[in-house]
Amino acid sequence: MAKMEDIVSLCKRRGFIWQGSDVYGGMAGTWDFGPLGVALKRRIMNTWWSYWVESRDDMYGVDAAIIMNPKTWEASGHTATFADPLVECNECHGRFRADKLVEGANESISTEEFKAKNAKCPTCGKVNWSDIRKFNMMFQTHVGPVDDDSSIAYLRPETAQGIFTNYKNVVDTIYPDLPFGLAQQGKAFRNEISPRDFVLRDRECEQMEIEYFINPSTWEENFKQLHDAYHKFLTEEMGLDANMIHDFEVAPEDRAHYSKHTIDIMFDYPNGQEELMGLAYRTDFDLMNIQKASNKSMEYIPKGGGERFVPHVIEPSIGVERLLLAVLSCAYKVEEKDGKKRTILALPENLAPYRFCVSPLLKNKPELVNKAREAYDLLRKKYGNVTWDDSGNIGKRYLKQDEIGTPKCVVVDFDSLEDDSVTIRDRDTTEQVRVKIAEL
Ligand code: GAP
Question: In terms of C-beta density within 10 A (0-12 exposed, 13-18 middle, 19 or more buried), how is residue 45 classed?
Fold first, then answer.
């Protein structure tokens, strides 16, 4: 199993992920993606979009604004309840999430329960705590030039509400058959008390959410279909090891305020098991709240006749960064052969930042460089994500490409000038085969 520090180090060294605002000493809970990181992240997001939206007849996309009318968050319950239990150490004034300091605790832990556990402050080691207070995690801002209560707005803490608030627009314009899903990808912001574990708990993250609108009479069947499809997506499209994925049925007292049934899909991350994503039966909670707050009907008129009703919703919700870290955790490998170590990022071909790396055997031989450019242009045209590397010797190039996850290295040598063939070297097996340039 990969260690977190090895993944973090590779991400930094090779330009996948850096601490946000690194040059100024960083900004806790934020991360910047470098050239390889953004390539991997986009491939994950594009694969998700193509799998869940473009290749299904029952899914549609939306892309809502990040700053929404604050009524959204009143109606959804976030203004009142989207809060974590905050405690402050009276000695060093460090602030922490109380439920993360006590094993087995959840977000509803009380001051009495917390204090009875005598948890030590992770910073100074003392046991002298304030009472717990609820800390709302929404980032507040002001819209427009006036800085008073009437201009308060929030950065969205979930993309889901941008879907719910557009449900009526979609039904009124394209009137899809029920059941149907609306999908959205985009930034979400949470003022986490203790961001931690690399990109696992961030203050700014990206979500990929689906709200699947259904007739309540079929909720169990719809839930199961989405659940099964997600397991297939995670293993077959994202290359996650099925043995590292675990379903966890959330107890009623631990479920989010809107959910009647929740399965958290957990993943064995390098630092332990954590939630990768959630699947929740949100009932008609959100549409009913919007109907009440907006005075607009959220009812769906069944196409084949029958009574109109407010649809219920199944929500699969996943964070891009958590998925990306799971992908990296499965892909990271160190192999030892003949006393030599090789780090491999065995990413699935569809996710690798580069599909091919093309090199001339020697960079000071123009005839090799020209031939290699030919192969490079051909592959570029066909696949897009192809890189060129003529630095160092060929062995070093292979090691670098293995570490950034490039599945195939294409090398043009002197034989290529005679037979129009190239050597293709495989990242995972290191096997080499000769292939005609025209057949690449
Ligand atoms: N709309 C439902 C919702 O937002 P959630 O369980 O709070 O539910 C869904 O979040 C997913 O978003 C999580 O399973 C996780 O993958 C991701 N996520 C949530 N908070 C995150 C954070 N602070 N940093 C990174 N990812 C996060």
Answer: middle
